[in-house]
Design goal:
The protein is of the alpha+beta class and 95 residues long. Helices cover 51% and strands 19% of the residues. It is built from four helices and three strands; from the N terminus they run αβααββα.
Length: 95
């Protein structure tokens, strides 16, 4: 039953990242940090793992003279996250 759960989303931080990214076009690092209430290092570590899996895309640019890093869910990431949520829903008995 649980084999359809994606191991990548076992962490509450990664689950939170994907929940934010699948409903937004692009979200910058500081906004994600604020929404999830995590440290820069913790967020960067989890984003790196999701990026390695090709579940998130990264955009680095300058806004004015300030660097800005933003993220969005990839198509594969959104699909994997939806599959994970569907698997969770199948685990919950219907009343």
């Amino acid at each position: 039953m649980i084999e359809q759960l994606h191991k990548a989303f076992e962490s509450r931080v990664r689950l939170g990242i994907m929940a934010v990214l699948v409903v937004n076009e692009w979200v910058d690092h500081s906004r994600l940090k604020e929404l999830l209430n995590v440290t820069d290092g913790n967020l960067a570590s989890h984003l790196g793992a999701l990026e390695d899996l090709k579940y998130v895309q990264v955009r680095k640019r300058f806004v004015g003279k300030r660097p800005n890093t933003s993220y969005r869910s990839s198509v594969a990431g959104a699909r994997a996250f939806r599959e994970h949520l569907d698997a969770i829903e199948r685990l919950i008995p219907k009343t």
